[in-house]
Specification:
Blueprint (H helix, E strand, L loop, with lengths): L14 H7 L2 H10 L14 H7 L3 H9 L14 H8 L2 H9 L14 H7 L3 H9 L15 H8 L2 H9 L14 H8 L19 H6 L1
Helix pairs in contact: 1-2, 1-3, 3-4, 3-5, 4-6, 5-6, 5-7, 7-9, 8-10, 9-10, 9-11
Length: 214
Amino acid sequence: MEPAGGGQKEVIDTVSKACAYGDFARLQSFVEADPSVVNAPDESGYRPLQWAALNNRTAETNYLLSQGADVNAADPTGQTALHWACVRGSLPVIETLLRHHANPDARDNRGYTPAHVAAQYGQTAVLYHLALKWHVDVDLQDVDGRTPLHWAAYKGFASTIRLLIVLDCRCTLPDKEGCTPLHWAVSNVHWRHPPLRHRAHDTQHHSPHRSASN
């Protein structure tokens, strides 16, 4: 769910759309009419706070939290608003969520923490912020034994790889397939010019980007 292009105006008829498109007035009117909507999932199980976080809507995020939105509520995939905020790297939204006690170590159904998601999308500044300000462990393994460094190497995000190495993440740690970050970099990244370039997609990567594109 993203702002429509080509001058087409989206009809804001749900609280989720109000959050995704940044229509604060409509959001406020929905909440005033029914305060429970701040925690009400849409037909796909995604919550208003997730849509606000994904689309970098700081005002809407603050408002939802002030009205009782559950900062750690998870969708059917196990992801929270903090996971979604890490997709596009909105540091103001991420900071807002963390200050309202978002769990930076929350795991989704595949064991991804917000740090995994940040690495999957090359959000180096997010990883720096999580590690340096909030002392988050950015070297945890998901259910397949992969760390954020594995994902950054697979996607070819050179600045993210450099940061994670500087943060002493484990370069030689094998995942459940026996592959280290270097294995993933060599086998899954095409080389054009240094630094590494990332593949167009990962068919096994489950993330909020898929729902955001629908």
